[in-house]
Amino acid sequence: MLFNQIIGQEHIKKHLRVSAENGRIPHAQLFVGKEGSGTLSMAIAYAQFLLCNFSENTEVCNLKCNKLQHPDLHFAFPVTSNDNVKKHPVSSLFLNEWREFIATQPYGSLFNWLQHIGVENKQGLIGVDEAEEVVKKLKLKSFEGGFKVMIIWMAEKMNIAAANKLLKLIEEPPEKTVFILVTENEEQIINTIKSRCQALHFPVLSEQDISQTLITNHNISNNEATKIAHQAAGNLNKALHLLQNDGSDLIFEEWFITWIRTAFKAKGNAAVVQQLIAWSETIAKTGRETQKRFLDYCIQFFRQALLINYKSPDLVFMESATGFDLSKFAPFVHSGNILEIEKELNTAMYHIERNGNAKIILLDLSMKLTRFLHKKEDVV
């Protein structure tokens, strides 16, 4: 993957290219950016630049990198057991699937990756077995005499044991060894790892970059591309799913509408509380990654309602797939409850991430939402 294949992010491309050409190549770098901003694609392009720009045979090197088969380009990413890998799952056992994933979904999310390997109802992890493999790979000499590059995707999924195992290597790597850690949430990476990396923060993609990509690569009209780019909110992965009429947002909207309507009626009504219990059980039966995606969708929905309530319709990108009138819901989301709502949604995601009982977490969240929706806005 070459820099010119990466969408937008021109200042980051220039920074990486110029610093490498001037010999300023940090041994450990942290690429931080939201889903769909191109962090993984940029990491691969940067790795290819390091491996091939200084190679004696650039053409052959690029061919190997394009197929993700260069012997000095290594990957670690979240995995879990599936039908083919029953025990001790590590990235090397999923390389064929990984190459297919990058070829078809270079801006894909962790959820997309887990779907690709047939385990979307599980959580992926970078564990100590993976860390031991990384150590073994990087202790070997470079096959082609140049750099060795290790890309760790979704580095926040490293558990403590894996992070501690890699700490010394990241701090003092072998000569001409470069670590690129890619993350959507740097706060979840332990400080001892973070402090040893030079961070590079990626902005979300512009609407113009996304719409132009859709027009060029998918042959759609300017109006349709503009509409999708607005809804995608800087996330190319989401834009592509919207283009393909991905059904998850429709399902999420139906869950959300049922939830808020039931929560609003539940105050002081025991019969309706039973409906909230049933709703919590329904969502709890889905996989944890689906639950986290849904809760993130809820955060976006509440934020959009807040923007409508405070007369900022130009910033609203959500469009209802069910005919739900967001403007009628908007008055119930205001300065008096939005911070509490967001805090509880994020807390719920945190506990689900850590294998908490989803049914209890979602029911507790629902009962709190019942109170928040009836809260009045403070009048200054």
Biggest beta sheet attributes: 5 strands, parallel
Number of strands: 5
CATH class call of the largest domain:
Alpha Beta
> Would you give the CATH topology of the largest domain?
Rossmann fold
The share of residues in extended strands comes to 5-15%
Run of helices and strands: HEHHEHHHEHEHEHHHHHHHHH
Write structural notes for this entry:
There is one protein chain. By secondary structure, the chain is an alpha/beta fold. It has 3 domains: 3-201, P-loop containing nucleotide triphosphate hydrolases (Rossmann fold, 3-Layer(aba) Sandwich); 207-246; 247-373, Zinc Finger, Delta Prime, domain 3 (Up-down Bundle). Helices cover 53% and strands 7% of the residues. The chain has 17 helices and 5 strands. The chain has helices at residues 10-21, 39-52, 58-66, 95-104, 110-116, 128-139, 160-171, 191-194, 207-218, 222-232, 236-243, 248-265, 270-284, 288-309, 326-329, 338-353, 358-373, and strands spanning 28-32, 73-76, 148-153, 177-183, 198-201. Helix 7 links the parallel strand 3 and strand 4 (177-183). The longest helix has 22 residues, at 288-309.
Please provide a brief summary of the model.
With 380 residues, the protein is α/β, with parallel strands linked by helices.
